[in-house]
Amino acid sequence: MASKTREKLIEVARQLFAHKGIENTTMSDIATASEKGRRTIYTYFKNKREIYNAVIEKESEQVVGRLREIFAIDMNPLEKLMRFIDVRIDIVEETIRHERESPVLRTLMVRDVRRMERIRNLAVEKEIEMLRQIMDDGVNMGLFSRERINDAFMAMIMMFQGIELSIMRNNFAFYGIERDEVRVRAKNFILAALTRDDTQATNNPPLQPTDNKH
Questions:
Q1: C-alpha distances out from residue 161 to 108, 144, 157, Å
Q2: CATH topology for 1-46?
Q3: Close Cβ partners of 28 (under 8 Å, ≥ 6 residues apart)
Q4: Alpha helices in 75-203 (DSSP H)
Q5: Where in the chain are all domains bearing CATH 1.10.357.10?
């Protein structure tokens, strides 16, 4: 019962923060909207900042929830990493599509940029923890190169950011890439970084933007 009450308070606060902003939302607002007394709220949270942090934690967990499902599966680290990349790109595409299709959602995100940025940053931190563990498991099983693991890890994080930006801008054609090719190219890039030696890797130069494709 206590857990359900706490979750309800977090959900009510999330909705109020989204529509009114954190500065314009009071503890009394949360109490009224949740049909709980102020005393009940203070049983779970010392102040509005604690509720805000709980909202951020919950929303970041929703973002990475599907990645956690992949992470929890007992499978070969290489296969798990490939599925992780697929789901990561799926999440970006779905999130951006929902933003474009929902004027209300776009308005709320613009209105509370700071909150959305905190959610994103916390989600990325959790994602990094999972990726690091998958890659360490691959090294321990002899699937990935121990010497190249750190460089590959950083390259993957930057790659995800670049893919997300290109999906937002829809500018893959500028780089001479079909959107449907992105997943395969991303996987091949990571495989090359993790499993190939330096001589083989140099046979695959990075893509360069072209001036005649927009």
A1: 23, 23, 7
A2: Arc Repressor Mutant, subunit A (1.10.10)
A3: 38
A4: 77-101, 103-111, 113-140, 149-169, 182-195, 198-201
A5: 57-201
| Tokens 């933003």 belong to residue | 99
Angle at 181 between CA 178 and CA 183, to 5 degrees: 135
Residue with tokens 């956690």: 68
Fold of 57-201: Tetracycline Repressor; domain 2 (1.10.357)
Cα–Cα distance measured from residue 54 to residue 102, given in angstroms and rounded to the nearest whole number: 25
- CB burial of 90-126 (b: ≥16 within 10 Å; e: otherwise) equals ebbeebeeeeeeeeeeeebeeebeebbebbeebbbeb
Q: What is the pTM of this model?
A: 0.69
Residues 6+ apart with CB under 8 A from 138: 77, 78, 81, 144, 194
Q: Are 183 and 124 in contact (CB under 8 A)?
A: no
- Outline which parts of the chain fall under CATH 1.10.10.60: 1-46
pLDDT tens digit string along 110-169?
Answer: 566 676 777 778 888 999 999 999 999 999 999 999 888 989 999 998 998 888 888 888
DSSP result, 19-34: HH-STT--HHHHHHHH
Whole-number Å distance between alpha carbons of 205 and 202: 6
Residues 200 and 192: beta-carbon distance below 8 Å? yes
